[in-house]
Amino acid sequence: MSPAIVTTSLTRRFGDFTAVDEVNLTVAAGQFFGFLGPNGAGKSTTIKMLTGLLAPTSGSISILGEDLTEKSAEIKRQIGVVPEGLALFTRLTASEYLRFVGRMYGLDKTTTLDRTQELLEFMHLADEPKKLIADFSHGMQKKLALAAAVIHGPKILFLDEPFEGVDAVAAGTLKIMLQRMIARGVTIFLTSHVLEIVERLCTHVAIIHKGQLVAQGSLAELRAGAGRLSAASQAASNTLHLVSGTQSLGTQSLEQIFLEIVGASGETPTEQELSWLS
Q1: Which among 54, 63, 70, 226 is least buried, having the fewest CB atoms inside 10 angstroms?
Q2: How many whole angstroms separate alpha carbon 90 and alpha carbon 94?
Q3: DSSP-derived 3-state class of residue 97
Q4: First to last CA, the chain
Q5: How far apart are CA 25 and CA 256, in angstroms?
């Protein structure tokens, strides 16, 4: 099967600032893919480009084997997106919003109604049918955003911080749905700062730092030190490269690997102190 997502020298500049710099990324079809990086590393900018919300300054994006620039409308019908800001129509009820989204994706009325009811029940959002989205808790809004992103049966699902501010019960519901989608062959592209969740759910990971891709591979490859990319190899191809001298990371957690790769492993909380707390 063709890769679900391929970027070639993907770059986005804002004036003199380069937010994403020559990123070569490959995500196989059916993978649960984690896209990690510190704050400001370029994660959300990359997702906006991959979903057609932001045009690249240079480089190319292939989604499901098609060029995103040339087949934007067709591709957007086959992807689902849960953006970090959610972007819900808060003066609607959950049912009204899902029916609207379903019809915008071209679903017929009967299918839209059936899927709306099924999603509301699965997400435990059916108890108060007249409640406006504006009155939902943050966790309820997250679940509704995910329901809207999957109502049309996407082939790729992009999730930007889906577990942020979500309680354990809601997070459990979201995880069940995501695992079921993976079982059906859907590709999931996830960004999250909660590395324990990424380690538990994702099979492959890429790490972006200061706009550049610095690691890409399976968790096993990253632990073996084989997923880290040198600057030269990152610019040259999508292939995994072993950086000379990279130490095997053995059985370290994803958090430890992440800190080692982005260069923060030597930092300790005692290096800086607040004067009134010292």
Answers
A1: 70
A2: 9
A3: helix
A4: 58
A5: 23
Q: Which helix (H) or strand (E) holds 25?
A: strand 17-27
- Predicted local distance difference test score (pLDDT) of residue 187: 97
Q: What is the pTM of this model?
A: 0.85
Question: What does the pLDDT read at residue 227?
Answer: 53
The one-letter amino acid at 191: T
Calpha distance 52→125 (Å, rounded): 30
Q: For 19-46, what is each residue's pLDDT tens digit?
A: 999 999 999 999 999 999 998 899 999 9
CA distance 115 to 57: 38
Residue recorded with tokens 């492959």? 204
Amino acid code (one letter) for 84 = E
Phi, psi of 139 (to 5 degrees): -65, -40
> What does DSSP assign to residue 92?
S
Q: Which residues of 104-233 form beta strands (DSSP E)?
A: 156-160, 187-191, 204-209, 212-218
- In the chain, which residues have pLDDT < 50? 230-249, 265-266, 269
Measured distance CA(23)–CA(60) in Å, rounded: 10
Which residues sit opposite 248 in a β-bridge?
Answer: none
In 42-100 the beta strands, taken as DSSP E runs, fall at 58-63, 66-67, 79-82
